[in-house]
User: What shape does this take?
Amino acid sequence: MDSQEVAESQNTAARNEISIYQQKYWKELVSLRVHLYYLEEYLIFNERCQMAMNWIVALASSGGIGAWVIWQKHSEIWATIIASSQVVGALRSHTPIDKRMKSLPRLLAAMDEIFLSAQRDWFPVSNGELTEKEIHELVMKLKSEKSKAAREYLGQSPLPVRNKFMGRAESNADKFFENF
Assistant: This one.
């Protein structure tokens, strides 16, 4: 083996080794994908809760009116059911679920844009085209963008942790990166 072949072999080996900064970037990329799937799980859950509340209010209100017409001797009970359903309907817009239903789709879209940008940046990171400092700056930019999006759309009320959602999000991310 001549000196040129040895040098090329060493360069190839060096490029195949993953630096600490490349690992940090990869972990941040995986974390972002997990967050996206977690937000999707949360959005689906909130949509189901909102639909259930709508059904309950509609059934209580309509059913109460129908029952009141049929059984007028217990009109106080039916009036209470109808009034309660109206109160629930009025208060619903102030529940965390309704507030999240306004912010989660926008947060999900913003995080998806951040992920696409990070995915695009992964190529030069993984190929060793960037210095450790440049990779570090990309990692910090990614963290900053995630944090900014969360603050913008969730404000000071973070999502409650749901381990079941996190487990599914991690599983989905694993499947995603198997085909990456």
Notes: Residues 44 and 101 are 10 Å apart (CA to CA). The chain has one domain: 19-178. The radius of gyration is 26 Å.
